[in-house]
Amino acid sequence: MTSACNISRLSGPNWLLSAWLLFAPSIAGAQEACAIIRAGGAGDWPPVSYLDPQSQETKGYAYGLIGRLSREYDKPFRYYINIPWPRMMFMAANNKIDLIAGLIPSPERSEHLVFSEPFHHINLYAFVAKNRDLNIEKVEDLANYWRVEGYGSFKGHRIEELAKDKTVRVKNDRLFADMLHHKRGDYYVSSIRSQKKWLSHFPRFKEMKRLPFVVETLNVSIGISRNTPCKNLLRDINTLVRSFKASKEETSSSPP
């Protein structure tokens, strides 16, 4: 699925993104040879990249960054949304897209991508079935249990090390609730925001509970294909990321 490239639609997850898109400083010397910027992004990862359930418009911090980049380059952009992660990585490796708008850097992904400076961070938590009595009181206890995880997902070095020999992979992350309910796995790692979204769409997620500790805090970056014909993408995206982060810090430090 591709998303239309209309900057006027970019409301983002809140007013901060919209204000930044209007007033961010221009990129110096943004002259690119590529005719169009091709980007891939998640459709269910608010506030990074997601489809608004009411309007069906693409929104999020990463989508806003790519929209701003497109405007600075005076080039259109094509946004492929809801593409499975393995396929998106294949597209990046084979010059089908220029970048992935929002992802967690990993050694495996670095084979085909270079990463921008982080523009956001997320806290990850472990979720278990309410009908299970598991002795998990801290992160280290997860090593004694089986994780359910989607193909192509990466949730940080800490959990990957703990679960390296005890992970059951599923084709779709949304299947994890069924797996835990039927005791085909013990826990799943996700963010609170994703869990709230899933609860509103899939009743079985109401049978899950969050364990009371943070598994890991991870940075979110833009991944630029090593095979893109667009030059200076990393430099110019980092310029925009710094501007966006500065606007967030200024807003958070301002008196109410």
Give the count of helical stretches.
7
- Highest-level CATH class of the largest domain: Alpha Beta
What would you say the CATH architecture of the largest domain is? Answer: 3-Layer(aba) Sandwich
Structural class: alpha+beta
What Rg do the Cα atoms give? 19 Å
Q: Which term fits the overall shape?
A: elongated
Describe this structure in words.
- The chain contains seven helices and 13 strands.
- It is an alpha+beta fold and 256 residues long.
- The strands form three sheets. Strands 1, 2, 6, 7, 8, 9, 12 and 13 form an eight-stranded mixed β-sheet that branches. Strands 3-4-5 form a three-stranded antiparallel β-sheet. The protein has a two-stranded parallel ribbon with strand order 10-11.
- It is elongated and about 55 Å long.
- It starts with a strand and ends with a helix.
